[in-house]
Structure prediction request, 541 residues.
Amino acid sequence: MIVSLQGVEKVYPPHQPALRKLNLHINEGDFIFIAGASGAGKSTLLKLLLGSERASSGTVAVLGKNMSQASEFEIAQIRKRIGIVFQDFRLLKRKTLLENVSLPLELRNYKKKDIETRSLAMLDALGLRERAYDYPPTLSGGEQQRVAIARALVGKPDLLFADEPTGNLDTHMSRIVFNLLLEANAAGVTVVVASHNLAMIEELNLRTVVLDKGEIVGDFEQPKGVR
Amino acid sequence: MIPAPKKERPNLLAVWGAVPRLPEQDSKEFLSEVFKGSFRRLKVAWVATLCSLVSIAALSALLFCFVSVLSGLKAASERLPEDVSALAVIREGEKFNGEEALKKLSFVRSFEVVSSEEGLNRFSTAVTLPSDTLENLKKDNPLPETVRITVASDTELTDLKGALGALPEVEEVLVDETMFTFARKVMRSVRTSGTILSLVLVFIVAFLISMSVLVALFLNRDEIEVAKLCGAADRDVLLPSIVDSLIVLMIGLWIGAIFSALFLKTLSGGFLSEAGISISLVSPLLFGILLCALVLAVSAGTTFAFLRSHRGTD
Ligand SMILES: Nc1ncnc2c1ncn2[C@@H]1O[C@H](COP(=O)(O)OP(=O)(O)OP(=O)(O)O)[C@@H](O)[C@H]1O
Ligand SMILES: [Mg+2]
Prediction:
C-alpha cells in the first residue's frame, strides 16, 4: 500500500474540524478521485499526505513512512518522490516557466543540461514550449495550471497528488490534462486527484472516494450513474 | 469523450525517456552549483548586496584598526618597564660602595655609576653654557656622584628603593613612581576598553551576517515554502543563504582589511611611531577575534535560520 490512512482526524486550531475518523487505502498504480463539495476536506487530506499539515490523531502512512513520526529530512525525501499540483498552483512569480518546471529536478541535484532538456520536453508536452522563458503572471489561469502540472510530472514521481487540476480549464483542456494523468498512471504513477468536477469523474469512471464534511460517505469503483 | 487509456503513450514517456535515467550529481558539482547560484542571486539583489558589503567593510575596518592599535599598545606597555630606572644620589664627598650588592640583586638589569666629574662632563656636553660659568661650575663641582639603575619591572622599584636607602653613603633614591603608575593606568584602561569595544564589534559583525542570512530567507520565503513542498530539505534551503552571506562577508572583510591597512600605514608613519607604538596588521589577537566573529555569525545565522524554516514548514 502506497498510501494508508487509519482513523485520521484533523482539527485546525483552535477548533475547526476538517477530517473525521478517516480510513483510506490506496494501492500502488491506482488512479483515484477524491470528490466532495467545497469545504469537504479534500485539500486537507492532500496536505496530510504531503506532510504540510499533521494529523490531530490517527496514522498517515505515505510510501511506507509514518508522516507524523518522520523527521524533517525524511519528509523531504518522501516529497522528492511525490509530484503535486496545488489548488492555487504556487508557481514562483519571479522565475521563468522553465525554472519553475525545473525545480523538482534541481532539488534532486541532476545535471544542469539534463534538467533543461527534460523540463523543456515537459513544457512541450503541455503545449507551453514557446512560453518557456516567460514569467507565470503573464499567463492565463489555465496556462498556469498546466505549468503546475508540468512541474508535478517532470520528475517522474511515484505518487501524484493533484488538487483540482482542471479547475481553470475548459472541457477540451481538461481532457488533455486528464489524458496526461492517465498516461502517467499507465506508466506506473499512482495518481490521487481531488476534484468536484463530477462530469469529468463520471466520464472517466474510475475509483472515487466521496467526502462530505470531513467524512468518507462513499467509495465507488465505478461512480458512473451513482449520482 | 475522452479516449480510453492506450497502452502506448508516447508523449509523457518520451519526456521521461528523453533523459533515460538522470545521473545523480556528485557533491563537488552540487557545491559549485550552490556557489554559482549565490553569485547570480547577489547580482540580482545588488542593492542589498552593496549595502551589506559597505557596512561589513566599514565595521571590519574599524575592527582591524582597533585591534591593530590595541596590539601595538599592548606591546608598547610591555616594553615600558625596561626604560624605567631609579637614581641613587650619593652624599657629597662620598663614594658608592654597593656595586657588589647591586650585582647580586636579580631584578637589577643594569646599573651605571656616574662620578661627579663624569656627571659634569655629561652636563656640559648636553648644555651649552658660557665658558666662565662652566669654569665656575668645574671649580665648585656641585654635582654629586649618582648611580643609575635599570630594573625589570616597576614592582621591584620599592624593593630597590629600600635596599639602596639602607646604604649609608646614599643620600636619597629618586624613583619617578607617580609618572610610571599613571602610564600604566592609562595603558590598562585603554586595553580593557579596547577589548570590550572589539568584542562589541565582533558581535555587531556577527549580528549583521546572521541578519543577512535571515533577510535572504525572508525575501525568498514564498520560494522556500514551495521548494520545501517539492522536497527541499532544510539544508538545501539554508546552504545557499549561508554561502551568499559568507561570500559578502569575505569580500567585505577584504575591503575592510585593505582600507584599514592603508589607514594604519599613514597613521604609523605619524605620531604613533613617535610615541613608540609599532603596529602590526598580522597579530594573533586579530585572527582570534575574526575567527570568533565568523564562528559566531555562522552559528547564529544557521540557528535562527533553522528556527525560521521550521516554522515555515507547518
Ligand atoms: N488553515 C486552515 N485553518 C483553519 N481551517 C481550515 C484551514 N484550511 C482549511 N480549513 C477548513 O477545513 C475545512 C476543509 O477545507 P479544505 O480546504 O480541505 O476543503 P476542500 O474540500 O479542499 O474545499 P475546496 O473544494 O473549496 O477546495 C473547511 O471547513 C475549511 O474552512
Ligand atoms: Mg481544496
About this structure: The pocket of magnesium ion (ligand 2) is lined by residues A 42-43, 87, 163 (CB under 6 Å). Chain B touches chain A at residues 1-3, 5-7, 9, 11-16, 18-19, 22-25, 29-30, 33, 222-223, 225-234, 236, 310, 313-314 (CB under 8 Å). Chain B has twelve helices and four strands. Confidence is low (pLDDT under 50) at residues 4-10 of chain B.
